[in-house]
């Protein structure tokens, strides 16, 4: 009986050890987890391509499990990053600068895309030019988000006090919402204008909206990194080897988009369909992607100018220094 009991114990112990080893890395320890976030927007195509082609998984190795979370706006992304719910991902510079100025632990590792923000007006709005905007309602993904700052900076540069958000004494009413819902909001008449990323700008135009401010004319146009790859210091400083591998995978994705635009478009269309249940016309997506430059470069000087604009628009209480924000930039 004792021999039988000892054999059972040893068998059970072997099973436990095998189970632990099966979920571990090459050294037998538990796998690390990397959670990456991004949005269902065309300017976030590098994350979609990297996910589809397995670039993150290949670069980080078998000892790291990669998971993905998608977000509707930069505010919720940054909240997740600060809470440790994600380790890295793609987001617009507006929320990054706003949170960094308030002491958030965030580093920009690389650029992802630039350009692509447009301001469009609904058919029902009666807006045919910027001069018609007074008293109208505009929508952006978030308060102080990248597209919001670009639009409001453009208006501020006109020098017309009425053409500003009511938040800072102007006549324009500002609301926020998920870009995937803008077409319905235009149709209902709830909003007149949208400062929006691609492909949603092109989709709204296809449905009858009119471009009032093009991606070339809006503030910071194509010079601003419209989307950046960011991480917290637990990754960028405590695990620099993993951070470097993540950047390498990101570079592969950007190169793939530039070398294989047709394949990248198909990946983006399918990814956005999976996330939003909206299937987009390939011709529309092709036009949208043509308005965007995919690059890992980061123009730190432009980022700092953009941060000053956020302060001038009263999204930031103080005009902070952004030194140290960019871990890998120009």
UniProtKB/TrEMBL annotation:
<feature type="signal peptide">
    <location>
        <begin position="1"/>
        <end position="18"/>
    </location>
</feature>
<dbReference type="InterPro" id="IPR044527">
    <property type="entry name" value="NrtA/CpmA_ABC-bd_dom"/>
</dbReference>
<keyword id="KW-0997">Cell inner membrane</keyword>
<dbReference type="InterPro" id="IPR010067">
    <property type="entry name" value="ABC_SsuA_sub-bd"/>
</dbReference>
<protein>
    <submittedName>
        <fullName>NitT/TauT family transport system substrate-binding protein</fullName>
    </submittedName>
</protein>
<keyword id="KW-0813">Transport</keyword>
<keyword id="KW-0732">Signal</keyword>
<dbReference type="Pfam" id="PF13379">
    <property type="entry name" value="NMT1_2"/>
</dbReference>
<keyword id="KW-1003">Cell membrane</keyword>
<keyword id="KW-0472">Membrane</keyword>
<comment type="similarity">
    <text>Belongs to the bacterial solute-binding protein SsuA/TauA family.</text>
</comment>
């Amino acid at each position: 009986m004792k021999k039988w009991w000892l054999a059972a114990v040893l068998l059970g112990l072997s099973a436990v050890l095998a189970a632990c080893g099966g979920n571990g890395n090459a050294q037998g320890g538990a796998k690390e987890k990397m959670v990456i976030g991004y949005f269902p927007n065309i300017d976030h195509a590098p994350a979609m391509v990297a996910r589809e082609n397995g670039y993150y998984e290949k670069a980080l190795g078998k000892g790291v499990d990669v998971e993905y979370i998608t977000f509707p706006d930069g505010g919720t992304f940054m909240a997740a990053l600060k809470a440790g719910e994600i380790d890295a991902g793609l987001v617009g510079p507006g929320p990054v600068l706003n949170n960094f100025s308030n002491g958030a632990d965030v580093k920009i590792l690389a650029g992802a895309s630039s350009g692509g923000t447009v301001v469009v007006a609904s058919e029902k709005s009666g807006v045919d030019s910027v001069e018609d905007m007074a008293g109208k309602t505009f929508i952006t993904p978030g308060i102080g988000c990248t597209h919001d700052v670009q639009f409001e900076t453009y208006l501020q540069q006109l020098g017309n006090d009425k053409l500003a958000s009511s938040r800072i004494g102007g006549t324009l009413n500002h609301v926020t919402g998920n870009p995937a819902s803008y077409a319905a909001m235009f149709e209902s008449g709830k909003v007149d204008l949208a400062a929006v990323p691609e492909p949603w700008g092109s989709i709204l135009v296809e449905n009858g909206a009119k471009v009032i401010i093009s991606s070339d004319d809006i503030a910071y146009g194509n010079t601003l990194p419209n989307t950046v790859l960011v991480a917290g210091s637990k990754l960028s400083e405590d695990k620099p080897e993993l951070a470097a591998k993540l950047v390498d995978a990101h570079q592969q994705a950007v190169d793939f988009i530039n070398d294989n635009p047709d394949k990248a478009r198909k990946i983006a269309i399918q990814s956005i369909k999976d996330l939003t249940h909206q299937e987009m016309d390939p011709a529309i997506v092709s036009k949208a992607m043509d308005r965007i430059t995919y690059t890992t470069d980061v123009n730190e000087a432009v980022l700092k100018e953009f941060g000053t604009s956020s302060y001038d628009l009263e999204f930031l209480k103080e005009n902070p220094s952004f030194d140290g924000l960019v871990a890998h930039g120009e």
